[in-house]
Amino acid sequence: MPANAQDILEQTFGYPAFRDEQAQIIDCAIQGQDTVVLMPTGGGKSICYQIPALVREGMGIVVSPLIALMQDQVSALQQLGIKAAFLNSSLNEAQKRDVAQQMQAGELEILYIAPERLAMQGSLDWLMQFKISMIAIDEAHCVSQWGHDFRQDYLSLNRLKTAFPDVPRMALTATATARSKQDIIHNLELNDPKIFISSFDRPNIHYSVASKQEANQQLEQFLTRHENASGIVYCLSRKKVDATAIWLKDRGHKALPYHAGLDKETRSVNQARFLREDAIIMVATVAFGMGIDKPDVRFVAHMDLPSSMEAYYQETGRAGRDGEPAEAWMVYGLQDVVQRSQMVDRSTADEQHKRSERSKLEALLGWCETTGCRRQGLLNYFGETLDEPCGNCDTCQNPPKTWDATEASRKLLSCVYRTEQRFGAIHIIDVLQGKDTAKVRQHGHDKISTYGIGNELIQAQWRSVVRQLIVQGYIFSDAEQFGALRLTESSQSLLKGELEILLREDVNDTKPTRESRSKIRINREDMPLWNALRACRKTLADEHGIAPYMVFHDTTLLEILEEEPMSDDEFLSISGVGEAKLEKFGAAFMEVLEENL
Ligand code: ADP
Ligand code: ZN
Fold first, then answer.
1. Which ligand places an atom closest to the C-alpha of 512?
2. What is the reported pTM?
3. How big is the CA angle at 53 (ends 52 and 59), to the nearest 5 degrees?
4. Cα 319 from Cα 297, distance rounded (Å)
5. Main-chain dihedrals φ then ψ at residue 137, nearest 5 degrees
6. What is the average pLDDT score of the chain?
7. Are the CB atoms for 374 and 207 separated by under 8 Å?
8. Mind listing the pLDDT tens digit for each residue in 56-76?
9. Which residues surround ligand 1 with Cβ inside 6 Å?
């Protein structure tokens, strides 16, 4: 094994150059310094610790919270010719002994280990007999009690400090909040760490938000842009996950459900299929996704509003880790606003926590309704600036139209007032539109002055007005009054005619203007070769019992298609081909190229 970082990058990983700050991060760790690495998903965190682990003397330890994924991470390393193994509760005694033996023999280069195992003093004592090169703590935000992924076992990882005082530790996460950064440094007791913060921009992701009408149909329309692609569809509830998965299956899509209500076996089978098969659509609650490092997820669709910008960024971040075009798509409507607000109001958390949840939700709602560039808004939220609008989001490509909603808003507010702030949006809109319903008659609302004054807008438009007035703080949906709309203080100036108000026209379809932006484009005449290369990849993957992307990522396969390497040297010059992969897979692909000449 070469002992120099650049050589390992080229010969083992097959990449010509480090990205962004990778070289500095790796250098720091090789020098023995503690580091904190905040980098977006797909940024290339893994080699930041894998390379120092190989360069420094001894075995590298990687703490990772998801035992289901360790197997995959370890197989991917083994494909590169790196001696890696994992220790977690999924191994039987004989397998554990086997790993221990490799360690005793000094053969292991990288060991993945679950936090609950390190939390046991016994395991630490045992590990202390080995020479350790470095310790990486992945998904380090799990140590923060404020985040949504908190894990008790992460708190005891501070013991690594006393157990391995001379071993550099690296904490890595894709969660960007200041709070989690502080908690990581403090709770892990890192020694004056050097902190690396990458830009959180994901330029290959196309962001869009459409107004929710017939959500299932909208989803199906969206999926026509992603035939034969893997993707994740997020729903808020388990019930909706099940229903949506069935709905998609009935329409011929390869959709699988994933949520905490399914038994463990089904969950792990579905997850494994998502990782290994082509073109699976995973319909899931947020229980799915942390640490999924499948590089070729082409889209993340939200059928319901996430809880915050942080959650949205994390969930959509699972798309396009390979840097190829990907889409983050969401449908969102009045019901989402009401539902999420009520979830915050009804939560049993203390007042301070609730206030923070509420302001997080408000930030996300404001972003949904923005007329500015989505990427600028997103980055801004995380404290970064992007000088120019991105040109690759729905608002950049189809600038939303606005309309003067002063009159309509005033009608709505007075109708809320006349009905004594005791009714939800549906009834208020019925009254405005002069509908003859039992509820209208029962309350005598056909006799009030706002009855039937709102026929210039259809129901969907009124819902849009209600939604945007809630988001802008002119009305709110009162959880204690079963979602009744109520006026706020700022509604007074609107009612009195002191304000004019512009609202966004809803958009139901958010298609990227340039299709190529969200799809890997293959020329028609290249299709037969492309399919042959993919078939070859699938056969090799099945032979080795690994996922196709562990043979080669799409980006590597594309380069093979374009460059048509015909010798070992040419094949090695493809990005993503190192020596081990050349030896294992090179001949098979070159044969395919020859046959298709
Ligand atoms: P993260 O863990 O930050 O989400 P990964 O470590 O999985 O990201 O890397 C994302 C993708 O980028 C992987 O496909 C990886 O092989 C690739 N990658 C990382 N570093 C480089 C590099 N220097 N050159 C080319 N590709 C890279
Ligand atoms: Zn934009």
1. 2
2. 0.82
3. 155
4. 5
5. -115, 100
6. 91
7. yes
8. 999 999 999 887 778 888 999
9. 15, 18-19, 22, 39, 41-47, 293, 295, 321-322, 553, 575
